[in-house]
Amino acid sequence: MFSLVWGTFATTLGWVVAADFRGAAHRFHAFSHAATPFVGSGAHVMGVGFFRLVAGLFALIGPIVLVTGLLELWRGEAENFRLPPVGGWFVLVQAVILGAALWSYWRRSGFLRRQWDAGSGPRRAAVAGVTASTVAFTLLLALGSGTWTLAAWLLGGLCGIALLLSDPADSATDA
Fold first, then answer.
1. Nearest 5 degrees, angle CA 64-CA 70-CA 76?
2. Highest mean pLDDT: which of 39-43, 133-137, 139-143?
């Protein structure tokens, strides 16, 4: 199942960013810096070309992994899996990290708050999908549900790609 989820996500994101579809590479570059918590304004270490190069690798490898996952599913080798049980401290640390990340992203100047404020129905649905899938991923990881954890990860990734392809949230930074 991991091959299906990873292959789908890698193929989609790879081709969208590598081809710079609707300015996705430039927007991904801006999103990556805006979404990094607790980082001040400074010189960008990686440029758009680096993101397009890495995305090109994902665009080439993603379909291979996706086909491998489909073949495993067709042969009956794909199955539900459970993650090993986790301790209480891991769950507590995971909850603290999730809380800090959501606070950073949803505060007044946070990345997701800016996307929400600048958006209409589809963009707000994508922001809500990213947020809900992040919470679901964390909960399912703590519960040890491997297959559903991957589904939450894929949903969040696809909502993130939808945000990537939407119109820029603030034209001053994207222009």
1. 140
2. 133-137
Contacts by 147-151, CB closer than 8 A, 24 or more apart:
147/1, 147/80, 147/81, 149/83, 150/1, 150/2, 150/5, 151/5
Inter-residue contact 101 to 37 (CB < 8 Å): yes
Q: Which of 8-22, 35-49, 129-143 has the lowest mean pLDDT?
A: 35-49
Q: CB-side exposure of 131: number of CA atoms within 13 Å?
A: 18
pLDDT band of 174, cuts 50, 70, 90: very low
Other CB atoms within 10 Å distance of the CB of residue 133: 21
Torsion angles phi and psi, residue 166, rounded to 5: -75, 170
What are the residue ranges of helices labelled H in the chain? 2-18, 24-34, 48-75, 88-106, 111-117, 121-143, 146-165, 171-174
pTM greater than 0.85 (yes/no): no
Distance CA 25, CA 47 (A): 10
